[in-house]
């Protein structure tokens, strides 16, 4: 057993040294003017109400995020996997959801002449795309198709590397997507390092996960969206609110999942205790 433990310890130490060496080599090859890995800067880890084993969504924040999506983001980005009726989970009544859905138009079934006509959306419909197809979206955005926002908060996250990903197992860190979105939205307007060439028609952002610049210009500014609840109308607050809303869109059942997980853990602890007591009781009079 001692040899096995020593072997495992040696293997673990070797892995740590190898990872450290690879990271050092990667950093050594990094050039400020022409970076070799992205994002150039790592997003800050923010405090979210939905973080941790007992996290929950702030419905007021989600409603503000929905307002930002509707007034700003929906001009380019779709949410094809999110149904209007899901908005009741944000605290809206059925009548409010119906009225909200009716502000959108979706394609209807072909009429008698075989033509596709639009109709007002109903709660059962999903958020429509602002473009009829991907080709139209690309043509309107310089060749880049704006991504769908349904799962963006789960699909976009920065790799935290060793040893942070090990610590994440115990801290249950799952907010990489919102942290990245917030960093990206607040990362515009910075001056590129000296010597860095930014392609024409793109915008430098050190937090972009795929390159040093992206086609999207800065979408949010201070005072751009009016809040009715007195929340700060700042870029930072806007970015937090839309990030939280997109996290909800990607994982609307997060609260139920965490509650179920907690109940399961309590059950397993109690069950393990009962098994131990039963074992002691059954084998108490048996000679060993």
From TrEMBL:
A matching Pfam family: Cytochrom_C1
Do the record's keywords include Iron? yes
Report which residue ranges the record marks as coiled coil. Answer: none
* One GO CC term, this protein: membrane
Stretches that traverse the bilayer = 260-278
- So which cofactors does this thing need? heme c
Main subcellular location: membrane
Which PROSITE patterns does this chain map to?
Answer: CYTC
For heme c, which residues are the binding ones? 73, 76-77, 216
Q: Which residues form the signal peptide?
A: 1-24
Q: How is the cofactor bound?
A: Binds 1 heme c group covalently per subunit.
Q: Which residues form the Cytochrome c domain?
A: 60-250
Q: What UniProt keywords apply to this chain's record, in alphabetical order?
A: Heme, Iron, Membrane, Metal-binding, Signal, Transmembrane, Transmembrane helix
Q: Which GO terms describe its molecular function?
A: electron transfer activity; heme binding; metal ion binding
Where's it found, cell-wise?
Membrane
Protein name per its UniProtKB record: Cytochrome c1
């Amino acid at each position: 057993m001692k040899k096995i433990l020593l072997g495992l310890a040696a293997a673990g130490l070797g892995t740590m040294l190898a990872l450290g060496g690879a990271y050092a080599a990667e950093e050594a090859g990094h050039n400020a003017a022409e970076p070799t890995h992205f994002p150039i800067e790592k997003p800050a880890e923010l405090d979210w109400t939905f973080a941790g084993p007992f996290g929950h969504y702030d419905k007021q924040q989600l409603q503000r995020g929905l307002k930002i999506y509707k007034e700003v983001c929906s001009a380019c980005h779709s949410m094809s996997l999110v149904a209007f009726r899901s908005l009741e989970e944000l605290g809206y009544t059925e009548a409010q959801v119906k009225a909200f859905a009716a502000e959108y138009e979706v394609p209807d079934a072909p009429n008698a002449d075989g033509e596709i006509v639009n109709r007002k959306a109903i709660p059962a419909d999903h958020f429509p795309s602002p473009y009829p197809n991907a080709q139209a979206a690309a043509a309107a955005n310089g060749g880049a198709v704006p991504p769908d926002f349904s799962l963006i908060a789960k699909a976009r996250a920065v790799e935290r590397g060793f040893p942070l990903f090990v610590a994440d197992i115990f801290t249950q860190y799952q907010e990489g997507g919102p942290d990245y979105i917030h960093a990206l939205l607040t990362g515009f307007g910075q001056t590129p390092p000296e010597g860095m060439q930014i392609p024409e028609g793109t915008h430098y952002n050190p937090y972009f996960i795929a390159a040093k610049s992206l086609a999207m210009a800065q979408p949010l500014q201070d005072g751009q969206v009016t809040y009715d609840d007195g929340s700060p109308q700042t870029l930072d607050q806007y970015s937090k609110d839309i990030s939280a809303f997109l996290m909800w869109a990607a994982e609307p059942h997060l609260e139920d999942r965490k509650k179920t997980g907690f109940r399961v853990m309590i059950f397993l602890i109690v069950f393990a205790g009962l098994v131990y007591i039963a074992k002691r009781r059954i084998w108490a009079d048996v000679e060993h």
